[in-house]
Amino acid sequence: MRLLRYASLFPIILVASFEQEPVIIPERVNIVDRLGQDPDFSLLLRLLQRGRLIPTLNRLEDATFFAPTNDAIEQSIRFGGSLSREWVYSEEYWDKPPDNIRHQLRQHLFYHLINYTIPLLPPKFPIQRPLILETLHYPGLPAEEPPPWVPVPGGLLNSAPQRLRVSSYDSFAWVGVDSSGRGGVQVIKEPITASNGVIIPVNGVQAHPLLSEFASILTAEMIETLSTAPHITLFFPIDSAWSTLDSIERQYLHSGYAERDVGRLVAMHSSGSGVNSSGDVGWSDSWNHGSVFTTVEGNQLRISYSVDGSVQVDRSTVIQEDIYASNGVLHVVSSLLTKPETFQINAEKYLLALNATSFVSLLRTANLSHYVDDEHDGQSWTLLAPRDDVIGGSNMNDVVRDLGRVLQYHIIPGKLLPAQLSDGMLLGTELREEGLNGHRQRLHVSVATKDGTVQGDSNGAVGFGDAQVISEPVESANFVIYLISQLLDPPGSAIEKIQSSSRRSTFLAAVFASSMQSTLKTEPSITILVPSNQGFEDLGLITSYLLLPDVDTREALRSVLKHHLVTSVIYKSDIGPGAARVYDTLDGSSVSITDNVVTSSGSWNQTSRLVPLNTLTENGVIHELRGVLLPEKLRITIGDLALAADGNTMITLVKRAGLSGLLNGTLTMKDVEDLDDWKRTHRRYRLSASSSPSSTLPTSIGWTLLCPTEDAFKHVNLTRLLDDQGALRALVLQHIIPTSAARPDLAALYPLSFQDEATYTTLLSPSSLHGDIIFRKTTKTPEGGGKPESIILLGIRGARGTPGETDFARLLNYGRTTTIDLAGMRSGVLQIDRVLEPWVPDWWNAWGRAVTGGLFGGVGIIMFWRIVYFFWRRSGDEATYEPLDGGNDDDEDR
């Protein structure tokens, strides 16, 4: 802006021409005296005193002083002109001035002085071209020593003085006009003659309106350079010339980050060597047809005259000549004097124009500018750039610590237009993760349309990661830029991603319980199949066992978790119908995947539904499973499940009963029949020698143990039970159900079917009419109210006791072994809350009810027939008769 002030505000004094008679005054009254006699010049006189120019004016013998009135000085101060308020009003400023030379004020005042008396022109005197005057102002840099009283040639105009134009129009004289004789400030009073010259009063200041566009892109350093470079000649385009540039190019030049290009632009329009390298300032009166200016950039600008008299600089027309500046001259031209390749806007310049300057600054800081500057070797990119108004916040500290990784996640190789994007795409970015063995990290694309593709406007319809596109993309030959709503965070660790969903809390607990956090974070290129909480719940006691705080269970838990870690990255696009693809897992086994179904290679041959989430991590991807996959080498027995069911007491009783093989999977039916007191137990729980068992045992069997919890044994006299081997063994046999190998209604995770009224034979059933177990389904409303919950009860079939739920045990949990028994079966455990003690009916239940019922029935029968006989005899003993002569009682009455 300083250049414009010099170019437009220095010409503040204009020559006037009036038709008048000479004024004769005494020779002793000089210019200073005349200024002191007129109150309109009090402020000017103060400036002359403070600039120490009174002796200079007194020494001049024949001068013209263009004297601004008080109003002119006030106007310049009020509207931000070249005069400073401190120069006029501040006493403190002049008591301790910033410099003793007072260079700037002296320069202003010397521009008002001409070292000769100009001819007085009549107001109507025809002027074809403005009159050019040479002032006493020799623009230059501040001197180190006080200057002489009268200026000497030198300074920034190659020892030439600054020029000033005067003209006459609208019947007034004007000073500081442009090359066409218009503008300037008006002469408002008649000239005042003094003994050593003439005073021409002027008022008002005027700025140049044509160069606001160019001025707005100049930095303070550029203005300083243009203001101090010696004998410079500038050709600046008018505002309308900038309309030939693309809007993005203009935004870029105004961004404040285009210093290099703006500098080149100024250099293409400026010459510091003058015409034909003569060193003179390129004023228009020195031009000839064919004159050549060599620009700072090295181009040559040739002057030519058209037939119509207009002046051409290359292909541009000179609109206005000779705008005087303190160190040269400025010419206004009609168009930019640039080469076609000047504005090859690269991605960086586009980003600056689009208000993504912070993003560019971060790229420079991270030494990643080669992605957006001209050094891309023909490679095309898709750039995801957050604007300045969305960058920042608390996450910037994390961004700075991992700056390169974050920024590379915003760069995608290739130029992807909206029509090429579809919902669910995973785009490879320039972020190459160590955890992916140097492969590209992926970025998720979302498209919020019905068909998942972009039709036309992508603003708001397309998202990258967690960010939305907030404006139409900008496309160039080698790149496309999407402005996004926030800075993207590269995928974090697998632990962070798993923590983000409450449906995976059991898996996360298992990871921490097995100390496998580091494996999930650092194992390269893995796919994590995360079972849902419901999947772990469906395993029942297996999950409880795996989470026990025990060394053996820890190793088993690690084996299960590693079976869910596939040693390659499987994205959703890799999963589909067709032949199953087999993938290795971290535990050394494998899984096969086809059509969103995962099949384990374990002994169960489990299948589970896959929910492909494409949840990206820094070392792979996460998908969700409906169930849990159990590896082949996992060994969980009935004893393990009983331990998980809080069944320590039951385990002890099984061992004391001589059935330890049940716990480790080696028990056979022959082992049961060979028990020492099997026959005694058999006789004890049969009602009579003629009674037969209610069920027969299957020949090919596994085992299901009904395992009461520790609390369930609080109501059992264990001391008495342990002293009675027969009773102990009967109780244990009552809790063991042999199961058949072929039960198609059984799900893989359930030891038994829990259907209502389902009845199963126990090992006590061959010895007792009351050895079978029956299941009942019911509902129960919680005490505090709420939705009724479904519960499963089981009890001894046919047992009679207290009515209600106390006759039954409640099923708390279940589990199935992963091992195969000697009989080729898998067994299981049912956790229950009550001990099912073998039921032996007492005399009343065994015979009393029947005898009493028979007696009452017999008495009832006898009484019935007695009553029948009584009424029969009575009806037979009564007399009968016939009426005589066919008469009747009615006849007798008559």
From TrEMBL:
InterPro entries: Adhesion/Biosynth-related (IPR050904), FAS1_dom_sf (IPR036378), FAS1_domain (IPR000782)
SMART domains named among the record's database cross-references: FAS1
Keyword Aminoacyl-tRNA synthetase: no
Signal sequence region: 1-19
Entry keyword set: Membrane, Signal, Transmembrane, Transmembrane helix
Pfam families: Fasciclin
Cellular component, GO annotation: extracellular space; fungal-type vacuole membrane
GO BP terms in the entry: macroautophagy
Keyword Metal-binding: no
Name used for this protein in its record: FAS1 domain-containing protein
Species the sequence originates in: Hydnum rufescens UP504
